[in-house]
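hiii so my PI (J.) wants the whole complex modelled not just the main chain, which honestly fair. so below is everything: two entries, each one labled with what it is. i double checked the lines twice but i was tired so who knows lol
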Amino acid sequence: MEFPTALVLNAIVAGLLLGGFYAAVSVGVSISFGMLDVVNIAHPAFIILGSYVAYIVNERMGVDPIVVSIVLSPLFFALGMLIYRIYYLCFEKRGQESLRGLAFFFGILFITEVVLLLVFGVDYRLVETAYSSTTLHFGTVDFPLRLIVPFVVALTMVVGVQLYLSRTFFGRAVLAVAQDQLALRLMGVNPIRIKEFAFALSIATAGVAGALLIVIQPVQPAIGREYIGLVFAVCVLGGMGSIWGTLLGALILGLAESFTSTFFGPSWAPAVSFGILLAALAFKPSGLLGR
Amino acid sequence: MRNRTFAVIAFLIAIAVIAASRLASNDYFFSAAYTVLQFIILATAWNILGGYTGYVNFGSAAFFAVGAYTSVFLYKFVQAPLLLMIAAGTVVAGLLGLMVGYLTLRMRGVFFAIATLALAVVLYTFVLNWDYVGGARGAYILQPRVVPFGLPRYVHLLYTAMVLMTAFALVVARAIQTSFIGRGLAAIRDDEVAAECAGVPTLRLKLFSATVSGALMGMAGTTFPYYLSYVEPSAAFNLSYAVNSIAMPLIGGMTSWLGPLVGAVLLGSVQQVVQVTVSSAWNLLIVGVLLVAFVTLAPNGIMGWIDAWRLRRREGS
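here's the output for the full assembly
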């Protein structure tokens, strides 16, 4: 097989841009699964929900989907609080999170998908923005703005989350919950309030990631499933609960998928994340930057 | 009741069910019954790992499809007889269960669940790209013209096979539950560390139940290609198999073999009615809502209610 330079360069650029977006998709799971130990497999469903919210508002009022998602992120935050409260009362408090909690999130994933299917049908929905069809060229390498804008927003969000968690008082409280809940209780702090807040934050990032998704590609209710393997692969590969690890894992996965679809055809791309997930689980379950 | 007695009774009931269905002249009856039986096997199989052991498998559809596509492969390859297809699909799906279990069951249970979720996507991608078994276009599987045992049509043979397989799955599930293996699995479910300390060979038991569970799910899929005469990846990998095989044991009750049976018969029948009277999308919504409702409000399912009611009555008297 030949590897022409232009093709390889383009694959690298596309992979890195895609990887940035994957970081935005996975950062929420890195918080909920990696730090709070809440295995939210419904995360991709909230991402697709974010896509459709951005789509509706864009269609009605013509506002840019990314702006919509940032303005409406308090809504997703509130939704996250509600879901965590139900999860805590029904499963975590009774010590049933491992089996029934998983089934609960699976049910939510499924219900969201079917409701979107009933309302919007199976058609792919797309948002046209001012920058959708512009592409910058540097020599033989293409930089489509359709990927650049989500990349910049994603990177800003991920770095913002990391700074928030490491620099602010409340952010450090979240990290403390991740380390030792019991110790927190002994200090007279209620870890449940902190977990509720952090879980809500993770759902808010899903809303924004959804808007980025619909800028990048057309969205259909069932595509959320393809992201389940991806978000957990990124999370495990990067190291549980490490935001920088998530970013690194996402970039690696983006590159791997980009190279696979360039050289083997795009229909093989979904298999990449699973291969990486299994390899990470089998050889380095603690991840690249794990504690 | 001893296992042998139970097996004899189960197969007698199966034969009675087969005989009784000869009276039904309606084609719809076979389609509805076949679907419900398929769900009984899937739910029973899921429960061996999910209910007995406490490990969630989200990839029932993948195991089901592996059974179905093993049949497709054998059909294309040698025009194999039905019995060989059933045996091969069961073995291949069992090996898949063993492999996924071996890679992920040594870690926290969550990783197994996530791996099975991703497994469905990957096998789907794989089949989509595999032209020999039809790829994205799907494959046509013609039912043989000659129907053995003097049955009127081939559907009757598939239905008979399905009834026998259902009885087989229930016998296996009950035998595991009542044996020392079942007690070991229950110990793992309640507290894995304590079980390990008490000398329960946890990894070996988990691998065993993952293998059996996967094999039975695959078995349910082996007759699927002949049943529809046409298989395409999105039908064989349909997410509704995964959701139903989780929802049915949860609704029926997960601690015994009876729970998945009750759940599958109830939920399967409701879905048949809704599918005819409303639509299949609403059908899926109902399953999803029932799943969430039961898991949050009645975590022990219908059998849990019955047990609680019995206990109260005994205490009352």
